[in-house]
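Sample pair:
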Amino acid sequence: MTRLAVWGDPIGHSKSPALHAAAYRVLGLDWEYGRRQVPAEGFATALAQLDGTWRGLSLTMPLKEEAFRAAATRDRHADLTGAVNTLLLSARPAGFNTDVGGIVDALAEAGIGDVETVRILGAGATAASALVAVAEIGAARVDVRARRPERAAPLIDLGERVGVVVEVSALDDPVLGVDLTIATLPSGTVLATETAAVLAASGGALFDAAYAPWPSSLASVWGDAPAISGLGMLLHQAVRQIRIFRHGDPSVALPDEADVIAAMRAAL
């Protein structure tokens, strides 16, 4: 038996098992994909206990940085962001970040493929992936907003590496208009009413990495501009994960990939 799973803490809400199971059925793969609650401090021990039946892991909060440290090799997106959400297991685990490509694909699916100015809400691993993603679709300036702006300092350095000017400030500081807002705040976050209204009025389209509950608190006040949930990101990053588990390469398409994606979308 070939075994895979998604690990995180918490993990009970994850839709990854349903997504992967749907894809494996279409691909005719007799693979088992489960879920396991693993805290950050228990990750190294849990990883060391896996035997040769294990092919790969999907990682969510708070394990992306732990997985980065565990990977013997990493793709470019992982190296840039310091985050690994996919491990292809072997004696030398290979680490990948498919969140970047998932964001690019989800934005393209929503008709957003060329932006100049972006606001990112949050300063964690998903914010780093969002920054790399918008750099790849042409962003020149990114306004990062965080509850604790000092936590966003690494994003300034990351912006320099990918050719984007990054400015950091608090969530409720004065704002300028942008083409796109990407919210990477934890699911269920509720901003102060005045702060949310100001961000919505100047934020362009909203791409919210959260998807449950939907609409999110921020999406519910976004007004006339499009508000896009994180389900597209979840779907497309999982497609890239399955490419890795199947081929070892996130850029190699799956057999009958359109049918695979349709089955995965139906599982959402």
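The mean pLDDT is 96.
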